[in-house]
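Notebook entry, structure prediction.
Reason for the run: the old model in the group folder had no record of what sequence produced it. Starting over properly, with the input documented here first.
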Amino acid sequence: MKHSLLYFPFLLCALAACHEAFTPSETRDELPVLFPDYAGVTIPANIAPLNFRVEAAYTKIDALIEGSRSGRIQVQHSRVAAIPPGKWSELLAANAGGELRVRVSLKQAGKWIQYKAFSIHISTSPVDYGLVYRLIPPGYEVYGKMGIYQRRLSDFTQTALIENTLMPGNCMNCHSFCAGNPEQMNLHIRGTHGATVVMSDGRTELYNTKTGQTIANCVYPYWHPSGAYLAYSVNETRQVFHEQKGKRVEVVDVRSDVVVYNLQTNELLSCPLLRSENAFETFPAFSPDGRRLYFCSAQARSIPNEYDQVRYELCSIAFDPESGTFGQEVDTLVSAAGRGKSVSFPRPSYDGKYLMYVLSDYGNFSIWHKEADLWLLDLRTNEARELSEVNSGDVESYHSWSSNSRWFVFSSRRMDGLYTHPYLASVDEAGTIGKPFLLPQKDPAYYESSLYSFNIPEFVKGKVRLNAREVQRKALSGRRIQMEYKAMPLP
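New structure, fully documented this time:
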């Protein structure tokens, strides 16, 4: 009985997550230095807990989180402010449209130091179900373990969609979804068992995309909003390495064109304006109404001698989804070459208001260009501006929009200059951009211990149910559906 009396209070204390009561010995009029930096960010009400630590020496951290309308959470830990998921979800739901006030105190040398409180704003616009990204270790020639993974944004659940351990020695890249639809997916497998995987209408098929009339396999994909077409670039690519310090690798196109695949007829469509011998065309993206095709185009140069003279403009051409035909002229939306700059990765918002792109000094492989920044083109006014709200002193590269166009995710090397990590940012009705925040992890130390880069983060509206074993079986069988090419003259 004595043992029960001693154990019972201890059990209650453990279950109740007892907190050490304290009165601050010192109050500082400064914000704590957080990792990740969540001070002043705008978040959706369906995001995982923003667990963080403080960049200082301490034996215990205390975080008091209070809603502007109701509710509060207090957590204490020896290392990380780990927020209970259930209470966090309730607090966000109760304060959507309002804010949280967070006050951090640290126990140092037996005394508690209290810091200035900071706010976290809660948007009424939800973010999509999750993100899909590739996790890949650094390297350029040998494929290590890599895979395509999905992460549920409301918690910390990450699951593998497909890993190259199913087909050793192969690379998996360029996954894409039709406006975030988890049932319509494109994925390339490169290597011995190479194929393009298309999941649509409840079927998963493997294709051979190289034809006798195209220069290479299909590469960068983008879905038509109807799901009836897939735009691709076809690129003859070379990889070269720098000798000077601070630069590592360049990926350059010797030739490139743009094609559109008709899923119903199994035909690749193009036209002379998208297949010029005097230009490199790449990075296609359909407008939200499906009636324009955006792409990047550069004057053809001698490669590799003039690799740093290749500069892409942002262009568009009309597209008729009923007939599968293209317009008679190309419009230039952003003329960057005259300013010594180059455009890559055009991505229109699904509400039709904006188009986001990357601007770098040259070329299109901007993920290794420290000067690469995100820019935003207002499609209503044709005015472009740098996204200074989210850019850093290092690489900002691949980005995608949420289905409601109120959030975007992008890749950045700002943390260490080596690994790309995903950051999310809000966009309100007036176009105001919120401070970006790092994708939350259960333990923030994940980003310092992981040896993988996050590559091509894409929003999805639901759980992706790709049958990896079916893909493996079909890939190893060698059977492919051969895409056909249909010549499309100018109208």
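Summary: The first strand starts at residue 26 and ends at 27.
The old model has been moved to the deprecated folder.
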